[in-house]
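Morning!

As promised:
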Amino acid sequence: MNATPALVILIAAIVTNNILLANFLGMCSFLACSRQIDTALGLGAAVIFVLTCTTVINHVIYHMVLVPWQMEYLQFIVFIAVIAAFVQFVEMFVERFTPVLYYALGIFLPLITVNCAILGASLFMIIRDYTLAQSAGFGLGAGLGWALAIALMAGIRQKMGYSDVPRPFQGVAIAMVVTGVMAMAFMGFAGMVDIQ
Amino acid sequence: MSDSSMNACGLCQGEGLSTLKDGLWHNNPISIQILGICSALAVTTRVINSLVMGAALMFVIVMANLSVSVLRGITPRRIRMIAEVAIIATFVILVDQFLRAFWWEMSLALGPYVGLIITNCIVMGRAEAFALQNPPVLSMVDGLANGLGYGAILVIIGIIRELFGAGTLLGVTVLSPEWYTPNQLMILAPGAFVALGFVIAVFNAINQFRGEDNGS
């Protein structure tokens, strides 16, 4: 059993073990939706919410259903089904009750099902053997870390629109190099807290 | 691409070949379509990991394309996405269980990234964009081509990172520690981002030099 307090896991998941900059999860939507800060913030908020909730739900299902029935090998298919169903449910719920929020977040919700950060967080939670509280902390921290990374990237990319990038590097290539520099900056936090 | 492959099967040979070339170069899943780069970055610290990951993805994508294509006539359109995910997840579970049973160290090294093949956009993308409209054999060729294209980039990045990060290739010392100090940064996360950025830039440069700008 992992003895790290949930709060430490939360902070570590934001800075030292950032799910995007250290574990490379959620790159596709990170590259596709980081051109404008507004979009990045909207998607980031949706990811924080879905990531926290699905990590907790998956934790409960894994330990209450899959482990007692010795069906751990089904975790992939169960987790992805939970994530897809949860996103669908949230979409319907938000559309029905808060149209304002729906127009702000709605378009991002379907994208989230295929965001590997969501499934990845659930798999890390199983591999690292977190308790329920630790899973909640990890889910929230991973979501916050991802949102922080995409918001920073959107800011840099908006500025980068004015710079003269060599032609082969235009588009994704320079974005990857910039992400690398960002990851290097985040490595400055290494040693502060650590989770494995 | 899909237009030409919609033809009747008289040209299967040529189609198969062009499908193969598409996946490997003109429409390479990583360098041109920029799909599935999470695992391309995460598992490429060593060449051997890249090879295994490439092989795992190739198996999943070929089998998933085959199954989706065989079932394309009887899958109701409304639930095709969930059907595709279920098919892909089934094959990913097979790969994961196989690695756990026969190659535990590799299963540990790849960690959650085997499971994450499910959300790898390449597999889903090929099932949706190609296998739903094409006959089984051609779909398998397409899967093979995309798997190979993906694996090739993974191995290239793996070579760059292992060579400069540890001075070895497949565990054999190439750059002698007597005159080369391994650059740990290449093994760590930032090295992965920068290496992939440069690989994509080289692909772009070659395509621009040959005058077929993809405007990516």
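Residues 28-207 of chain B form one domain.

Hope this helps with the figure draft.
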